[in-house]
Amino acid sequence: MTMKGLLATVLYVSLGAAQVMAADHPGRETIEKNGYKGPETCEECHPGTAKNFLNTVHWKHASKVTNVDNLDPKQEYGMKNRIYTFCNGNDIVNNLKATPKNEKGKSKLTGCNTCHPGDHLCDVGSCGTKAEAAVDCLICHSSEYDYSKRKPYTNEKGQVVMSQDRSTKAALAIGKPSVKNCMTCHETAGGGYLIKRGFAFNAENDVHAAKKMVCVDCHKTKDHKIPTGFDPNNWANDGVRLNCSGCHGEKPHKDADFNRHVARIACQTCHIPTTGGAYSKDFTKWTKLPDGFYEPTTLQKDPNKLKPVYAWYNQTVKNEPHFIGPKGSRKDKNSKIYPFKVYQAKAYYNKLNGQLLSMDFAPPMATGDTLAGVASAAKTLGIKKYEPVPGWQTIYFANSHLVTKTKALTCENCHAPNGVLDFKQLGYSGKEVQKLTSPTIYFDKAVQKQKEKEEW
Amino acid sequence: MKKLVSVMIVLAVFGIACLSFTSSASADEIKMVGVITKIDIAGKDAKTATATLKDNKSGNPIEITVNDDLTLDKFKDHRIVEGDEIRCKYEVIDGKNVSKYFRKTAGC
Q: Would an 8 Å CB–CB cutoff place A192 in contact with chain B?
C-alpha cells in the first residue's frame, strides 16, 4: 500500500468512526431502558444545562442591548417586548391564545410566542425548576422530532399549553441541530414562509448550504449562547457575535485589489447581491383569507428576487418611531458599506406622543378590525390615553444570507455610471464619483479576465 | 374535390390549434387555497406523496401530487399535517395535479 493509500484508509476509517459516534449519542441504552423524561434525562450527562438555557435569548426572547439609540440600558429588549412594524405586536400583547370567533364561527390558537421552546405554562423568560423541566430540548436537537406532537391546546383549567414530542424515538435521534431544526421556527417568523428575513438556506440559494454546512457551523454555539451578527433590527443577543472574517480572515481573496476593498466594504455587499421576503405591509388594513380569517396585507418576493440598498454602517442603530436603521458615514472609520433589505410598513401611531402603537392580532385576525387590536394591546400595556393615526415606518434588515461566490458583484457592477452603489448618496464628491465610475480603475484587470475566459 | 381538400386542411389546422391550446392550458399553473383532508405517503423513503385539499372556494376535493423533497420531508415529520391550510400552485401533467408550490398559509 502506498503512503497516500494508507493515509486515505486512515482518514476513511476515522471519518466512519466519527459518523458512528455522531449517530450513537452516548446514553442510548439508558434512554432505551428508561424512556425519555424531558430535560431531566438530558441532565444526567449535562447537569446544569437546562438552568443555563433559561438565561439565553432563545428562552428569554430578550437581552440587554448596547448598540441601539433611545433604549434604557437597564432593560432587556427583544421579541418579548419590542414594538415595530414587522411584528406589530410581541410576546406580551400577542401571547398565545384563542382568537375571537370569525364570521364562520371558527377560532384558532395563535401568538408570537408559539415558537418559544417551553410549554407555554412556563413561557418567555420564566425561571425556576418548573421552567427547567419545561424546556423542549428535542425540538432543536432531534432529527426525528414529530411536529404533530407540538401544538397548542387548552387544558382542563382553561390554560393554553404547548405540547411537545418527548418520545423515546425522538430522544434516540439527538445531535447537533440540523438546518431543519433551526428553520422550522425561523422560516415562518413574521407571519409566513420566508417573509421576514427572505432567505432560504439551501444549496440553490447559499454557497455555505451548497457545501453541506449547517446553521450552527457559522452560528457556533457555546453553552447555548448563539453568536449573531449586527442586524439593525435584531437587537437581542447572547453577547457573542460572528462575522465572515472569523472563518475567511481579513484577506479572503487571492486578488490584492479585492482585499483592499475589505477595509470599507462589508463582505455581504459583493457576496449577497440580492434579498427577498416581505418588503411592505399594511397593518391598518388586513386582507380576508378564504377561511374567513384575516392577515396583514403584505407585499413580498421570493428569495433572490429583491435588490438590497447600500448604506454606511458602524454597527450602531438609529431607533426612532418612523425609522430603525444603520448609523454610520464615510468619515467614520468604523463604518463599512453594507447591503440591507429595506422594509416599509403602515401601522397606527399615537397622535398624542408620536410613538408607534402595538396591536394584538387576535381581534383583527378574526374580524379584520385593526383598531380593536390596538385597543386590546393598549389595555394589556396599560396605555389609557391614545389617539390612533396611520403612519409609515422604515426598517433596515441585515442582508446576511443568500451568500454567493459565482454571482458576487465584481468591478463593473459598482464602478459603472449605472452601478449598484449610489456613490453620491454614500458621501462622495462629484469629482470622486466621476473617478469611481470610470473604467480606468478596472479596465486592464477586466481585459485580462476577459482574455482568460476566452482562451481555449 | 379541391374544395373538399381545402376544407379538410382548414379543419385539421383548426383541430391542431385547439389541441395545442388545450395542452398549453393544462400546463399552466393553477392556484388554490385549501385545507388538507388526507395525506398519502408510503414510508420514510417515499419520493412522492398525494395530498387531498378541500378547495376553499369550491369546496371540492383536489388531489395534489407532491414530489419535492422539502415538502415530502415536512409530511414525514408532520410539520405539515391534515387540517393545515395550504397555498398551492399546481400543473396538470399526464392527468395528475403536480405541485409546484405547497406552503402553509399561517406563520407564527
A: yes
- What is the tens place of the pLDDT at every residue in A262-317? 999 999 999 999 999 999 999 999 999 878 899 999 999 999 999 999 999 999 99
CA distance A148 to chain B (A): 5
Q: What is the ipTM of this complex?
A: 0.76
Distance from B17 to chain A by nearest Cα, in Å? 35
- Cβ distance B78 to A114 less than 8 Å, yes or no, reads no
Taking alpha carbons only, the member of A407, A53, A397 closest to residue A231 is: A397
> What is the assigned CATH class of domain B30-104?
mainly beta
C-alpha A294/C-alpha A370 separation (Å) is 10
CB neighbour class for A192 (10 Å; exposed up to 12, middle 13-18, buried from 19): buried
Query: Which one of B57, B85, B108 has the shortest CB-CB distance to A114?
Result: B108
Tens digit of each residue's pLDDT (9 = 90 or more) over A44-82: 999 999 999 999 999 999 999 999 999 999 999 999 999
User: What is the residue extent of each domain of chain A?
Assistant: 26-409, 410-456
Total CB pairs under 8 A between chain A and B: 52
Longest dimension (CA), chain A: 84
Distance from CA of B56 to the nearest CA of A (A): 6
Task: Give residue limits of the domains in chain B.
Answer: 30-104
- What distance in Å separates the CA atoms of residue A97 and residue A95, rounded to the nearest whole number? 6
Q: Do A191 and B108 touch (CB under 8 A)?
A: yes
User: Tell me, what amino acid is at A228?
Assistant: T
Asked if B57 lies within 8 A of A290 by C-beta distance, the reply is yes
| Total Cβ atoms within 10 A of residue A240 | 14
- CB spacing of B107 vs A192 below 8 angstroms: yes
How close does chain B come to A111, measured CA to CA in Å? 7
A50-59, A355-364, A429-438, A439-448: least confident range: A439-448
| CA pair distance A233, A196, nearest whole angstrom | 11
Measure the CA–CA gap between A396 and A408, rounded to whole angstroms.
21
Task: State the Cα–Cα distance between residues A152 and A327, nearest whole angstrom.
Answer: 41
Class of residue A383 by CB neighbours under 10 A (exposed 0-12, middle 13-18, buried 19+) = middle
**Is A144's CB within 8 Å of B35's CB?**
no
Contact A190 B107 (CB under 8 A): yes
